[in-house]
Protein backbone atom coordinates (compact mmCIF):
# COMPACT_ATOMS: atom_id res chain seq x y z
CA UNK A 1 0.00 0.00 0.00
CA UNK A 2 2.84 2.42 0.80
CA UNK A 3 4.40 1.68 -2.55
CA UNK A 4 1.17 2.64 -4.36
CA UNK A 5 1.01 5.94 -2.47
CA UNK A 6 4.54 6.79 -3.69
CA UNK A 7 3.55 6.14 -7.30
CA UNK A 8 0.45 8.36 -6.89
CA UNK A 9 2.65 11.13 -5.47
CA UNK A 10 5.06 10.94 -8.43
CA UNK A 11 2.12 10.84 -10.84
CA UNK A 12 0.54 13.90 -9.16
CA UNK A 13 3.85 15.80 -9.37
CA UNK A 14 4.14 14.99 -13.10
CA UNK A 15 0.62 16.27 -13.72
CA UNK A 16 1.37 19.41 -11.69
CA UNK A 17 4.57 19.97 -13.70
CA UNK A 18 2.64 19.53 -16.97
CA UNK A 19 0.02 22.05 -15.90
CA UNK A 20 2.74 24.53 -14.92
CA UNK A 21 4.41 24.20 -18.32
CA UNK A 22 1.06 24.72 -20.10
CA UNK A 23 0.33 27.78 -17.94
CA UNK A 24 3.74 29.34 -18.55
CA UNK A 25 3.48 28.79 -22.31
CA UNK A 26 -0.03 30.33 -22.33
CA UNK A 27 1.23 33.44 -20.51
CA UNK A 28 4.25 33.66 -22.85
CA UNK A 29 2.01 33.37 -25.91
CA UNK A 30 -0.31 36.05 -24.55
CA UNK A 31 2.60 38.42 -23.94
CA UNK A 32 3.93 37.86 -27.48
CA UNK A 33 0.50 38.54 -28.97
CA UNK A 34 0.23 41.73 -26.93
CA UNK A 35 3.64 42.89 -28.21
CA UNK A 36 2.60 42.13 -31.80
CA UNK A 37 -0.66 44.06 -31.38
CA UNK A 38 1.23 47.06 -29.95
CA UNK A 39 3.74 46.93 -32.79
CA UNK A 40 0.97 46.79 -35.40
CA UNK A 41 -0.82 49.71 -33.71
CA UNK A 42 2.36 51.81 -33.72
CA UNK A 43 3.07 50.92 -37.35
CA UNK A 44 -0.47 52.03 -38.21
CA UNK A 45 0.04 55.33 -36.38
CA UNK A 46 3.34 55.90 -38.24
CA UNK A 47 1.66 55.08 -41.57
CA UNK A 48 -1.15 57.56 -40.80
CA UNK A 49 1.50 60.17 -40.00
CA UNK A 50 3.27 59.46 -43.32
CA UNK A 51 -0.04 59.87 -45.18
CA UNK A 52 -0.62 63.16 -43.35
CA UNK A 53 2.81 64.34 -44.52
CA UNK A 54 1.77 63.65 -48.13
CA UNK A 55 -1.58 65.36 -47.64
CA UNK A 56 0.14 68.43 -46.20
CA UNK A 57 2.22 68.91 -49.36
CA UNK A 58 -0.84 68.76 -51.60
CA UNK A 59 -2.82 71.00 -49.24
CA UNK A 60 -0.14 73.70 -49.50
CA UNK A 61 0.21 73.23 -53.25
CA UNK A 62 -3.52 73.84 -53.72
CA UNK A 63 -3.85 76.68 -51.17
CA UNK A 64 -5.06 79.66 -53.22
CA UNK A 65 -4.07 82.12 -50.47
CA UNK A 66 -0.53 80.72 -50.24
CA UNK A 67 -0.15 80.61 -54.02
CA UNK A 68 -0.93 84.34 -54.29
CA UNK A 69 1.52 85.29 -51.52
CA UNK A 70 4.76 86.24 -53.30
CA UNK A 71 6.75 85.93 -50.05
CA UNK A 72 5.95 82.23 -49.61
CA UNK A 73 6.49 79.18 -51.82
CA UNK A 74 4.39 76.05 -51.83
CA UNK A 75 6.45 72.83 -51.58
CA UNK A 76 6.26 71.98 -55.29
CA UNK A 77 7.39 75.46 -56.39
CA UNK A 78 10.17 75.38 -53.81
CA UNK A 79 11.31 71.93 -54.96
CA UNK A 80 11.26 73.13 -58.59
CA UNK A 81 13.85 75.76 -57.66
CA UNK A 82 16.09 73.20 -55.90
CA UNK A 83 18.26 70.33 -57.06
CA UNK A 84 17.00 67.87 -59.64
CA UNK A 85 16.36 64.43 -58.16
CA UNK A 86 17.43 61.36 -60.16
CA UNK A 87 15.47 58.34 -58.89
CA UNK A 88 17.88 56.00 -60.70
CA UNK A 89 20.92 57.08 -58.68
CA UNK A 90 19.60 58.86 -55.56
CA UNK A 91 17.36 58.02 -52.65
CA UNK A 92 14.78 60.45 -51.31
CA UNK A 93 15.47 59.70 -47.67
CA UNK A 94 13.25 60.56 -44.73
CA UNK A 95 16.40 61.12 -42.68
CA UNK A 96 18.11 63.62 -45.02
CA UNK A 97 16.60 67.09 -44.85
CA UNK A 98 19.26 69.23 -46.47
CA UNK A 99 18.66 68.80 -50.20
CA UNK A 100 14.89 68.40 -50.33
CA UNK A 101 11.89 70.59 -49.65
CA UNK A 102 10.72 69.74 -46.16
CA UNK A 103 7.38 70.16 -44.44
CA UNK A 104 6.14 69.17 -40.97
CA UNK A 105 2.68 68.11 -39.90
CA UNK A 106 1.85 68.88 -36.29
CA UNK A 107 -1.18 68.58 -34.08
CA UNK A 108 -1.93 72.23 -34.96
CA UNK A 109 -3.21 70.99 -38.33
CA UNK A 110 -3.13 72.74 -41.68
CA UNK A 111 -3.69 76.47 -42.09
CA UNK A 112 -4.06 78.49 -45.26
CA UNK A 113 -1.34 80.99 -46.21
CA UNK A 114 1.20 79.01 -44.15
CA UNK A 115 4.22 76.94 -44.98
CA UNK A 116 4.26 74.14 -42.44
CA UNK A 117 7.87 73.96 -41.28
CA UNK A 118 7.46 74.26 -37.51
CA UNK A 119 8.61 71.15 -35.65
CA UNK A 120 6.25 69.39 -33.30
CA UNK A 121 4.36 66.20 -32.67
CA UNK A 122 1.72 65.13 -35.13
CA UNK A 123 -0.02 63.24 -32.37
CA UNK A 124 0.60 63.60 -28.66
CA UNK A 125 -1.32 60.65 -27.18
CA UNK A 126 1.29 58.33 -28.68
CA UNK A 127 4.05 60.76 -29.64
CA UNK A 128 4.27 60.58 -33.41
CA UNK A 129 6.15 62.75 -35.91
CA UNK A 130 4.98 63.47 -39.44
CA UNK A 131 7.00 65.13 -42.18
CA UNK A 132 7.52 65.12 -45.93
CA UNK A 133 10.28 65.45 -48.49
CA UNK A 134 9.57 66.83 -51.97
CA UNK A 135 11.95 66.69 -54.93
CA UNK A 136 11.74 67.88 -58.53
CA UNK A 137 12.45 65.08 -61.02
CA UNK A 138 12.09 66.50 -64.53
CA UNK A 139 10.13 68.53 -67.01
CA UNK A 140 8.59 66.55 -69.82
CA UNK A 141 5.97 66.79 -72.50
CA UNK A 142 2.58 65.95 -71.02
CA UNK A 143 1.26 62.59 -72.07
CA UNK A 144 -2.36 61.88 -72.63
CA UNK A 145 -5.16 61.83 -75.12
CA UNK A 146 -5.42 65.61 -75.52
CA UNK A 147 -3.65 67.08 -78.55
CA UNK A 148 -4.32 70.53 -77.11
CA UNK A 149 -1.96 69.93 -74.20
CA UNK A 150 0.67 68.17 -76.31
CA UNK A 151 0.75 70.91 -78.93
CA UNK A 152 0.78 73.89 -76.61
CA UNK A 153 3.50 75.63 -74.66
CA UNK A 154 2.67 73.58 -71.56
CA UNK A 155 4.79 70.82 -70.07
CA UNK A 156 4.42 68.56 -67.06
CA UNK A 157 6.71 69.11 -64.11
CA UNK A 158 7.23 65.78 -62.37
CA UNK A 159 7.84 65.57 -58.62
CA UNK A 160 8.33 62.84 -56.06
CA UNK A 161 6.78 63.42 -52.65
CA UNK A 162 7.63 61.16 -49.73
CA UNK A 163 5.57 61.23 -46.56
CA UNK A 164 7.35 60.00 -43.42
CA UNK A 165 6.02 58.97 -40.03
CA UNK A 166 7.70 57.79 -36.85
CA UNK A 167 6.44 56.82 -33.42
CA UNK A 168 8.59 58.19 -30.60
CA UNK A 169 10.96 55.59 -29.21
CA UNK A 170 11.02 53.44 -32.36
CA UNK A 171 13.94 53.48 -34.75
CA UNK A 172 11.87 52.56 -37.80
CA UNK A 173 10.33 55.18 -40.05
CA UNK A 174 7.31 54.39 -42.19
CA UNK A 175 7.40 56.09 -45.59
CA UNK A 176 5.01 56.37 -48.49
CA UNK A 177 5.87 58.00 -51.81
CA UNK A 178 3.85 59.39 -54.68
CA UNK A 179 4.73 60.94 -58.00
CA UNK A 180 2.95 64.11 -59.02
CA UNK A 181 2.83 65.80 -62.41
CA UNK A 182 1.82 69.43 -62.55
CA UNK A 183 0.91 71.33 -65.72
CA UNK A 184 3.18 74.33 -66.07
CA UNK A 185 4.54 76.64 -68.77
CA UNK A 186 7.38 75.05 -70.70
CA UNK A 187 10.87 76.25 -69.86
CA UNK A 188 12.93 77.66 -72.66
What topology does this entry show?
Blueprint: H1 2-61, H2 64-67, H3 75-80, E1 101-105, E2 128-141, H4 147-151, E3 154-167, E4 174-185
Antiparallel strand pairs: 1-2, 2-3, 3-4
Pfam families: PilX_N (PF14341)
InterPro entries: PilX_N_dom
Domain Type 4 fimbrial biogenesis protein PilX N-terminal: 5-55
Write out key terms for the chains shown.
single chain, alpha+beta, 4-stranded antiparallel β-sheet, 40% helix, Pilus assembly protein PilZ, PilX_N_dom
What series of H and E elements makes up the topology?
Answer: HHHEEHEE
Name the structural class. alpha+beta
Broad shape: elongated
The largest sheet, given as strand count, sense and whether it forms a barrel, is:
4 strands, antiparallel
Q: In percent terms, what proportion of residues is strand?
A: 15-25%
Radius of gyration: 28 Å
Overall residue-averaged pLDDT value: 87
The helix content, as a percent range, equals: 25-40%
Strand arrangement within the widest β-sheet reads 1-2-3-4
Q: State the oligomer.
A: single chain
DSSP, total strands: 4
Distance between the termini: 107 Å
Poorly predicted runs of 5 or more residues: none
InterPro entries: PilX_N_dom (IPR025746)
Pfam family, one: PilX_N
Organism: Salinimonas sediminis
Protein name: Pilus assembly protein PilZ
